[in-house]
Write the structure tokens for this entry.
Amino acid sequence: MKRWPRNLQDYEATLVILISFLVIFGSFKLYALKVQASTTSASDYGSSPSSEHVYDETDVISQWYRYLDTDGHREAEAYIVSVFEEYGLNVTTQEYTAQREDGDVRAANVLGYLEGRDTDKCLIIGGHYDVHEYSTHGAYDNAVGVGTVIELARLFSVVVNQTPPTSMIFAAWDAEEGGGAGSRYFLENKPWQTDIIAYINLDMFSLNYPVKNNMPLSTEEYYKMNIYTSPIDDFSRYDDIEYNDSTLGNFTMFRTLLENITYDKYDYPPEWVLVMDDTVGASDHRFFIERGIPGVWFRGMNEKPREERDLNEIAFKHTPIDRLETMEEYAGGKEELLKGIDTGLLISFSLATQILESHNVSSSQNGGETTKGAIENIGQIGIVIGIVVIIMTVLLYVFWRRLR
Ligand SMILES: [Zn+2]
């Protein structure tokens, strides 16, 4: 074999080192691109729960009149589908027939599915996007709830960006107004064969602690946040349901988790943020609790006075003044409203996180699956390919030199 001048061999070595550097640089560049791609619009809101995002989604969704089978309703539905798809969720539009006073109309739940390691179990987070006939904007009831579901979907699918221990479903229910037909239809016709481990319901909140109650004549310092849970003591709203010991055990564990988060982790004052048995049932969570599924409803400023002459509820739901502007006015400004949103957002995010963690199997059992999940990351694949290419280049170079 022809022997090359010594300076040329040095040149070859330099070339190999240069190529190796290029490969390493390319791998990191690929990784950076992947991070950048996953952080476009979704990460404008950062990597922690964003009340600003909930506010913006409330603003977008409340622009449409979302009464069943109207143009605004269909636009809102298409919008929620597009957001869930942007987050990489597996989106299903579940169509069914709902009743309006003037007859049967089309209705549709929008469901965003995030597959977990255990697909036999799922956690559901939902809120309804339809409005009452006289609610032209439905910002409080319930664009704010859907906005929160969207923010939680962003957090778990884009920010956390890991396969959760169990599957998750993010649900925008339809036809809640007038009986909760949407969530009931879902429970009777689940698109996925999976046990529901818990349900988190977001419907009408943000005007709650720490937002000061600035209503004229009001006797209370703050708007209350009622956190209605699957009952463990007062079953008056669910007295026709049969519970067994495991149902009660699940309800009790769920309640304890919620109290720990609310009062220990976040230190909210129990007189203004009240974790209590659900004796109201007036939203989608009711159908889950009736089936023995632990559930919770976050409810801000309340519809019905809890005591006579209680002036702390101004009934603006189901009216044309249910708008984001009205919410801000009642809160005393946007900054105050954002603080009120945070209360429901932070507790529900922690609750969902801890429920998922409690279903996390031990690392020895899921080690293989974790590795699989990690390798799914394009950036890491890039790095792995880069390292393999470097090793092979070096080996080939050494082999080639030995041959000569
Ligand atoms: Zn509602």
